[in-house]
Description:
By secondary structure, the chain is an alpha/beta fold. Helices cover about 40% and strands about 15% of the residues.
Amino acid sequence: MIGNPDLLQQSQLAMVGSRNPSVDGRENAQAFARELVNQGLVITSGLALGIDAAAHQGALAGDGLTIAVTGTGLDRVYPARHRALAKEIAARGALVSEFPIGTPALAENFPRRNRIISGLSLGTLVVEAAPQSGSLITARLAAEQGREVFAIPGSIHNPLARGCHQLIRQGAKLVESVADILEEIHVTYAPKASVTQDNSQTTPDLDDNSLILWSNLGSAPTSVDTLVSRSQLTTEQVSSILLIMELQGWVTSAPGGMYLRVDR
């Protein structure tokens, strides 16, 4: 994982839903996440387009904590447009994956990671979902794992409400407010200071190859080719390590594919 491992011990609520939500669905996801973090919950989702991203963004906007469980290796960000979001989550929360470094975005890996999203959490809230969707897979896994399942109802004319209505008919709790969720789950509060990473160190706690690469970076922009030459690592190794260190805040990118070291 990248980020603070202490978050895995915090009370979490999974939030999932459509990759192409309605405007109302996106706003609901952000609003619920913002309020849920204020109630002491960590929001866990999958970094996907749509409801996942809105849930992460809502948690961050509420100055709260969020965990993204990815379907790729942690040196990859999928979708690529969420690179900035992934970087913010790594700095203020955590990125988690069971897949090794270098694992690309394969379709079969995303349903597989859903069991981790539901398993880490006290319950799963489905915001919007079609009847045959990955969000309903996550809800089913949550029920099988003995977790609570929540669903926000919608208009009978909205196709993305049908999956939520199906869950409610099957026994999921109908949710109209955050209070409906808090009635069912116990939240263990933790002061934010206890889950904030110690950034006072001047040398990062990294593996050997990462430290070698970091030591070969300076305040002047450096190219990947130069780093390959200095470190004697492969281009693929250097690229993967740079992305991980950038997500962790030890490296920053510069125009022209250059990189600089961040001293903290």
